[in-house]
Amino acid sequence: MADRRAISHLLRRLTFGPTAAEIDAATAAGYEATLDGLLRPAAEVRPPELDVDPYAMLDAGAAREQRQRARQEQRAQVATATRWWLARMAGGGSAEKLTFFWHGHWATSARKVRSAHLMLAQQQTFRRYGAGDTGPLIRAMLRDPALIIWLDGQRNTRKAPNENLAREVMELFTLGLGAYSEADVKAAARVLTGWQVDHRSGTARLVPQRHDDGAVTLLGRTGTFDVDSFADLLVRHEAHVPFLAGRLWARYAGTTSPVPSPVLAAGRDTTALIRAMCRAPEFAATAGTLVKQPVEWLIGAVRQLGIPVDERTGARLPAVLRTLGQVPFAPPSVGGWPEGTAWLTTSGTVARLRAGQQLAALAPAAAEGLDGAEQLATLLAVDTWTDRTYAGLRDVDDPRRLLALGLASPEYAVH
Amino acid sequence: MNTLTRRRLLIAGGITGGAALAAGATAVGLRDVLATAPARDPLAKTLVLVTLYGGNDGLNTVIPYADPAYAAARPGMTYPAEELLDLGDGLAFNPGMPGLHRLYGSGRLAVVRGVGYPRPNRSHFQSMDIWQTAQPDRPGTTGWLGRWLDTTSGDPRLAVSFEPVLPPLLAGATSAGATVPGGTLTLPKAAGPGVLTAFGTPAAGESAAQARAAACFADLMRVQDLMAQVDDGAPAGDETEPDAPATATGGDAPPLDRQLALVARCIEAGAATRVYSVSLGGFDLHADSKDTQRAQLARLDGPLAAFAERMTGRGVVIAVYSEFGRRVRANASDGTDHGTASDVFLLGDGVRGGLHGEQPSLTDLDDGDLKHTVDFRDVYATLLAGVLATDPGLALDGWTGRLDGVMT
Questions:
Q1: For the residues A283-293, what does the mean pLDDT come to?
Q2: Strand-pair category, B342-348 with B85-88
Q3: Which intervals carry biased composition (Low complexity) (chain B) (predicted)?
Q4: Could you say which of A77, A216, B197, B385 would form a disulfide bridge with A187 (CB–CB 3.0 to 4.6 Å)?
């Protein structure tokens, strides 16, 4: 039984919410085998087929209406990409959860980038490099077109550098506050000057005339740096691994307890870090303390209720996510989505109650077989109801209503 | 329930503590209420805090056009004289702010200049935490208005936001403000009062997060009672968000005009809420800032000026701030990078309009940034004392500073 709880905890944290059948199978396989399976390298993913980016193809002299129409098509493409991604998340698997982690970490929004192609290309970078050493990931991200547009990299020139990308790379993506100075921000901005995004090809390239190749003092070293040697400075910085481990720990384990030291010792390979995290006794102790982000809450419910993410439902899920306050490809800020109890609001509670009703209506089969609070706990992979929630659920006869309330319950909001 | 009764109900919350209401507001009888409550002071004021996310460029909001150092530092970002909205003293509002300029002209808008804090932090997130927690040395986990809420009954209805996520501002140590979706709060059919009460009951040994999730159900019962009295006459939300040129740096709120329309409805309906938090994102403009910031300020100006006019005589004070201003010198992409001190606007009943605080120098700089002349805690203390009629030291770690002459 203890195994089963530890394994359901592992599955809840490393995937978008396990089904009862998945927990059964994993319990039979054991903790270590389950962990190995979850961390196995994922198969290559083919992004959805989209038409060319209509805005990138416009001529310089395009009329206002043409531009507006192209913007509209871009938004439609982002909506298509969002539905595709939600369906992939619902397909299960820990790799997609890791991709979602990186998206929240290098938080880039389509509201400014606009191009679904560039957003999907960034996501492919997370898939390609996100499970390994962070060195190649950071090198790739510093030349990632979506990130460069998002943080004004293409406006960063030798004449007077634009600090947006340089600052956030160090503060939010690699080192954290306190590990660098304002002088480092200015120096890094110079190192990152001259990168231009070509919208038609969807790539970024260095334009030498705009690049400042002078020597700078950056993070304690003096010399000339390019984007790769800057990335190397970042990953070798003593603050990098603790920062990265802290972010993984916050998102997978909990937001308050310190990162266990064996995790820090795992180095900068993301899979090694997650493995060390899941083996630490402190990880098991975080069960029931981590607030689900809305995407985690919704996709978990979709999986457990067996709701197909198809034409009919796929279009409705983003609207639900909007009322819950989290839309993929549109983080509210470069700092990513809030975490912890910030999600636990009166407004969020109402949204979960409403969404629970909608989801229950989309899952007649799951509701039909439901008989009582205990079965509901199994269906939703909730270890146990508290007495008060059990009291609230006990007398509910209508299975759909029972399902909706279970999804909105305090025990389902955290995991 | 009429307005007076509702007001008294909230007083009951204040006197008996949250416990009676936690069982469900409907469980409190009129008799209990009348036994405890003198009516809320009809002169009690309301604070509306407007957060501008992204670091609004104060120097192109309140423009020191007469200072030659201004044009020298920002050659591509200045406005022709005929477009400037003059304030006197060589200052002018951005052309995107005709509504606020009109209010300034009628003496209802105070511009507090050079507001900041020691050892300024240029991270959006850290600096916004500092402003919201009012703790420059080490921002904690409670907001200054959350701590004020702790000193009251802790009733979440006293501090309301219309964002889906709670701003840290309204998080207290023992209580939290309410986030209210849309205008009316009609609960789904599945959630009867019996279930809500059950779900809202604390359970022994549960984690802090789970306890908070449960507390939301108890809060919901209380909030619903209040908000049910408020008609949703607000304009419908725009479902497709517009593209944004700025790096978003916080705030995923409904459009400002919608948020302010909801606040106005609540105030007109006699809601007992004393603090409303609204926000507008999109000020993190590192490139081609001039036109975008002007449009962004217009997005603030129209709804805010209309709201201020509508609230005249109702004891409403509005404060507008951002996490920092921008560097004095523009970058080559005609934008500005993260800076320090900026302006705070105060407007509404009891605010003495005009220029307050000392104008920071554009030449005596701190590594390219303005040196602040007013500590933001002085502004907060003034609001806590002048609007919320409370001892500012309780919410501000004993801070004793004040801003003189800005409130009558």
A1: 95
A2: unpaired
A3: 243-254
A4: A216
Provide the whole-model pTM: 0.83
Which residues, other chains included, contact A63 with Cβ-Cβ below 8 Å and sequence gap of 6+?
none
Q: What is the DSSP string of B236-251?
A: PPPSSPPP-SSPPBS-
Sequence spans of domains, chain B: 36-184+243-395
Q: Which residue of A has its CA nearest to B214?
A: A410
Segment of A91-95, A157-161, A245-249 carrying the highest mean pLDDT: A245-249
What pLDDT is stored for residue B41 in this prediction? 59
Burial of B98 (0-12, 13-18, 19+ CB in 10 A): middle
Q: Which residue of A has its CA nearest to B220?
A: A346
CB distance A150 to A108 below 8 Å: yes
Contact B185, A363 (CB under 8 A): no
User: Which residues 161-180 on chain B approach chain A with CB closer than 8 angstroms?
Assistant: 162-166, 168, 171, 176, 178-180
Interchain CB contact of B369 with A (< 8 Å): no
- Facing B243 at nearest CB: one of A114, A151, A291: A114
Nearest-angstrom CA–CA distance, A108 and A123: 10
Helix, strand and coil in chain A, % to nearest 5:
60, 5, 35
**How does residue B190 score in pLDDT terms, banded at 50, 70 and 90?**
confident
- A318 touching chain B per CB within 8 A: no
Tell me what the pLDDT averaged over chain B comes to: 84
Partners of residue B335 in chain A, C-beta under 8 Å: 152, 155, 162
Spell out where A199-339 has E strands.
203-206, 216-218, 221-223
Fold of the CATH domain B36-184+243-395: Alkaline Phosphatase, subunit A (3.40.720)
φ/ψ of residue A259, rounded to 5: -70, 130
Tokens found for residue A242: 């603790």
Which tokens sit at A155? 């406006």
| CB within 8 Å: B251 and A333 | yes
CA of A195, closest CA in chain B: separation in Å? 14
